[in-house]
Amino acid sequence: MAAGTRTRELPxxxxxxxxxxxxxxSRSAETLVLRVPGWPGHLPxxxxxxxxxxxxxxxxxxxxxxxxxPDGDRVELTVQRVDDGEVSPYLADVFSPGDLVEVxxxxxxxxxxxxxxxxxxxxxxxxxxxxxxxxxxxxxxxxLGSRVPFRxxxxxxxxxxxxxxxxxxxxxxxxxxxxxxxxxxxxGAGRAAGRLTPQDLVAWGWPPDxxxxxxxxGPTGFVEAAAAFxxxxxxxxxRIRTERFGPTGG
Length: 250
Known about the structure:
Blueprint: E1 14-26, E2 29-35, E3 47-53, E4 59-65, E5 74-80, H1 88-94, E6 100-107, E7 122-127, H2 131-144, E8 150-156, H3 165-170, E9 175-181, H4 198-204, E10 213-219, H5 220-232, E11 240-245
Parallel strand pairs: 7-8, 7-10, 8-9, 10-11
Antiparallel strand pairs: 1-2, 1-6, 2-5, 3-4, 3-6
C-alpha cells in the first residue's frame, strides 16, 4: 500500500437469521443453530450482534460469540440465560425453529486464532461461558485436521455448569483438556475445588519458553486474575489475548 493511502471497510449490515435447530448445553445455556443466508464466514473468536424487534418497533441487541467453525450459512451461538435479562430469556426459552432474528457480523479481529498463519502452541483459558469463542477455535482445529497442539483449562463452578461436555470428553488428537471446579468437584477429580491459581497454569498450561498464543475468556475478575498470573509466570503480555464479559442485562 502506498504511503498515505487509506482503506475503508464497508459497514456490516444486518441479516435475517432463522433458527433451524437448538440443543441444551447445560441447565442454563442453549446452543442456537442459525441459518444466515449470505453469511460471509468468520474466524474463530469473532462474535455477532443479535437484534430483537418487537411488534411496536422497540428493538434491543446483544453480542454473542460464535461457537461453531465456519460452515456455509450455518452459525451457532451458545446463549447463557440471565434470569432478569431482556434478550437471553427469549433466546434460551422462547425462540423456536422457524423464528427469525437479525444478526450483524462477524465482529472482531484481535481475539481470533488464524490457523493458516499461526503455528505456535495454543493455550486456552476459559471461565464459565467464556468457553464459547474458545470452542470455536477447538472446532476449527479439528475441522482442518491441524496438528497445532492445544491445551484447554476450563473453570466452572460444578459439573452441571459445563458446556459442550460430551464433545470435550470425546477429545481430539493433540487437544489436552483440564477441568477446574471452583465450588464442587466430582469424585475422582484430579484437583480439589477452588479458583484458578498460578500452579494450575504451570501444571496444565504451556511453559513461557514455548511462546504459546494464549487466549483467556470469561468474567472480568477471572480474566484479570488469569492474565496477571500468566505475566507473573513469564508469559509475554503481547502473546496474551483476552476477552471479558460482565452483567449486560442479558
